[in-house]
Write a structure and sequence with these properties.
Helices cover 43% and strands 18% of the residues. It is an alpha+beta fold.
């Protein structure tokens, strides 16, 4: 059964989420370290923990040749490795053929636990991060998203910084600071492992326990999920700015209030989000695009914390359409289409039907387990997720639409050059 994880606590205390898929020929691993850019300024400068998305791939104690060594041995068999950094976590991922499952497990663990972090590694990655930052900042929407983040979280909040840091912090980052950040930030107390493949739980546990015993990390405060850095204070009102393109950008944020551990409450908000923004015929797309040609596309999103809880509508348009779009969003929230039982039943059918298009693979399994963890706080069996979502009653969706329609807004309006 897809996404039917077994949870096991290793002798070190690290939680392992293991899905065994009999007969599968691939093996996938995600090592999640609950440390990210929000921790930067507790140790050094902005952008600090992003370096661990880069520098460990230059070499680790177990794989001195780093990613090049991994690729030379296993990339020829289509194995891949990667890493990503967010505000609250850093994730190391590998996908390998089954015959290399041990290496597929140990390589991302070594990236997290025992990177060499030589001076020459830091200097080489400094130049690469410079190129990454140049590419990122050349995006005409970069300043828009930076402004939204700064106003939403507030200056000085740990979540407000740029993951890549500033030009000054990038140039000033020393090798010693990076190595100190690993000691003061990385811990097995802040780690979770997600594994998918045709390997027994016993074999995986044995490898994990052995590796952790041989590669101890600092004993730090425990984190088994994304850390709270202080909930964001919602500030209603309108923030205005300009874009560097013809397009104007709108971002309308509405606060949510719910019990963060309540699966049913989260499911109700997920379904409300889907009712408004899922599918080609969703109410927002139908009203703003098909009926009035105000946008090319419009999207919705949910943020479930632990630092921010909000629903958002976002769209690109022309300056002359801004006021009408703001009005039409309110009309859609109060409209008959979004509030009809037929629309909710369409969403339920879509969720049930989507399962038939999910290809059985360890890569997909890993993506789903991380996705459900983000939504519900822990991995859930995919069939349980479907049942949970489809059981949300119409009255629950109506109540949340009422809440969104009556709540104060935080509007970000960036006018284009047209």
């Amino acid at each position: 059964m897809l996404l039917n994880c077994t949870k096991h606590i290793a002798s070190s205390g690290v939680p392992l989420y293991v899905e065994r898929i009999p007969g599968i020929e691939s093996f996938s691993v995600a090592v999640v370290m609950f440390v990210g850019s929000a921790d930067d300024r507790s140790i050094g400068e902005e952008g600090l923990f992003h370096w661990f998305e880069h520098a460990p791939f230059r070499g680790t104690k177990l794989f001195p040749g780093g990613a090049n060594e991994f690729d030379a041995r296993y990339g020829r068999h289509a194995a891949t490795c990667n890493a990503s950094t967010s505000r609250t976590r850093t994730t190391f991922v590998t996908h390998t053929p089954m015959q290399f499952w041990r290496e597929g497990l140990l390589f991302p663990m070594s990236l997290a636990a025992c990177p060499l972090l030589y001076d020459e590694h830091i200097e080489a990655e400094r130049r690469i991060i410079e190129k990454e930052k140049t590419e990122r900042t050349s995006d005409p929407m970069y300043d828009v998203h930076s402004c939204i983040s700064e106003h939403k979280f507030g200056s000085g909040h740990p979540m407000s910084g740029d993951t890549l840091g500033t030009d000054e912090s990038l140039q000033g980052m020393s090798s010693n600071t990076v190595r100190r950040a690993h000691i003061q930030g990385y811990s097995w107390n802040r780690t979770a492992l997600f594994v998918s493949g045709d390997v027994s739980l016993e074999d995986i546990v044995a490898e994990v326990d052995s590796f952790i015993a041989e590669n101890p990390l600092s004993e730090l405060s425990e984190r088994r999920t994304s850390q709270s850095y202080g909930k964001v204070v919602f500030k209603p009102g309108t923030i205005t700015g300009e874009t560097k393109t013809n397009a104007s950008h709108l971002n309308i944020c509405l606060p949510l209030c719910f019990g963060t551990e309540d699966f049913e409450e989260r499911a109700a908000w997920i379904m409300t989000n889907a009712v408004l923004g899922h599918g080609m015929s969703n109410p927002l797309m139908h009203d703003l695009r098909e009926e009035r040609q105000l946008v090319y596309g419009v999207g919705t999103s949910l943020s479930f914390g632990p630092n921010i809880f909000e629903f958002a509508v976002h769209a690109d348009t022309r300056t002359k359409h801004i006021d009408e779009i703001l009005e039409r969003v309110d009309s859609v929230l109060n409209g008959e289409v979004a509030r009809s039982s037929e629309r909710l039943e369409w969403v339920r059918d879509n969720i049930r039907g989507a399962k038939t298009f999910i290809a059985l693979s360890t890569r997909t399994s890993l993506q789903l387990v991380q996705r459900t963890t983000n939504l519900f706080g822990e991995p859930l069996c995919y069939s349980d997720v479907i049942r949970l979502l489809c059981a949300v009653p119409h009255e629950a969706v109506l109540a949340r639409l009422d809440s969104l329609a009556s709540s104060e807004r935080q509007r970000f309006v960036f006018k284009g050059t047209d």
